Amino acid sequence: AENMYFFSELALTLNEPEERVAPTDSRLRPDQRLMESGRWDEANVEKQRLEEKQRAVRRRREAEAVEALEEGKDYEGYTPLWFERKVDAVTGELICVYKGGYWEAKDRQDWSLCPDIF
């Protein structure tokens, strides 16, 4: 543990790659993989690319929302695949609750609903 910044064994393995996961799994982030292999400059370039890709998606969604508003249409925006937002009955806080589908998609290896985020 002292050689690994005193992290527990669990903490050290949390980012380990796993086979057959959704293509949106954060362990598949290409910048993270480059960083972990010590390729810092490439990781930084990749991180910048990913961030710009995220900004472009956000700008597109914002433009779609404005367009829908101007046309008097409803705009749903982004909807998470595996979770939904609900108000916790006890605390009154907004929480994310698993709505199903991930494990079934994993069993079938059908990731067709997943967006291309990397």
From TrEMBL:
GO molecular function: cholesterol binding
Organism superkingdom: Eukaryota
GO terms for cellular component: cytosol; perinuclear endoplasmic reticulum; plasma membrane
SUPFAM superfamilies xref list: Oxysterol-binding protein-like
PANTHER family to which the protein is assigned, alphabetical: OXYSTEROL-BINDING PROTEIN 2 (PTHR10972:SF194), OXYSTEROL-BINDING PROTEIN-RELATED (PTHR10972)
Name used for this protein in its record: OSBP2 protein
